[in-house]
Design a protein that fits this description.
This protein has 183 residues and is mainly alpha-helical. It is 56% helix and 8% strand. The protein has a 3-stranded mixed beta sheet with strand order 1-3-2, covered by helices on one side. The structure holds zinc ion.
């Protein structure tokens, strides 16, 4: 957390307030435990109009990347807390703050990830961002073709939908993550 604190001034005062809020109320569990599932995520706590970050650290640069990413989700909910009944995942916008923050922080890669890991962290993060763009294109093509097929009456069962997705993925040489590796 202290590494993040040192660069947040440039990101903005509201982001800093979100981190202060997170720390003041202990809204994170990022310490190592063998009992933890090997995953990092942010979960909203609608009753409290707050969020909570969970992570199992690995000891690599990925710990900082995860914390930056998840703090973006935390920030998004901090500035726009949603009632539980209105909360809904929207893949088109769900990763804007988290991934955007990862890219903004790259300017401070050496300070955040250390001189020895800054280059590889930067390369991996940029590759992930490009991969997200490709995923977005594949999703869009799939949705367009699914709608066209539905209107033509040729998309009538769940297996048809899966076949169509396979077809689009094969044609693009890409297999979107469907959100199962990002949270
Ligand atoms: Zn995310």
């Amino acid at each position: 957390m202290s590494k993040l604190d040192s660069v947040t001034e440039e990101i903005g005062p509201v982001y800093q307030r979100a981190l202060d809020f997170m720390q003041e109320y202990g809204l994170y569990d990022i310490s190592y435990s063998e009992k933890k599932l090997d995953v990092g995520y942010t979960i909203t706590l609608p009753y409290y109009y707050a969020s909570f970050i969970f992570d199992k650290p690995s000891g690599s640069y990925n710990d900082m990347e995860t914390m930056i990413h998840e703090s973006g989700h935390f920030y998004a909910n901090y500035v726009n807390p949603m009632h539980a009944l209105l909360e809904e995942d929207n893949l088109d916008v769900a990763e804007i703050h988290s991934q955007g923050l990862e890219v903004l922080m790259l300017e401070h890669a050496a300070e955040i990830y250390g001189d020895d890991q800054a280059d590889i962290a930067t390369a991996v993060i940029l590759m992930n961002m490009l991969s997200a763009v490709v995923d977005g294109c594949v999703f869009d093509e799939f949705q367009t073709k699914a709608l066209q097929a539905r209107m033509a009456g040729t998309l009538t069962t769940a297996p048809h939908v899966v076949d169509l997705l396979d077809e689009v993925e094969d044609a693009n040489g890409a297999s979107p993550t469907w959100g199962d590796s990002w949270y």
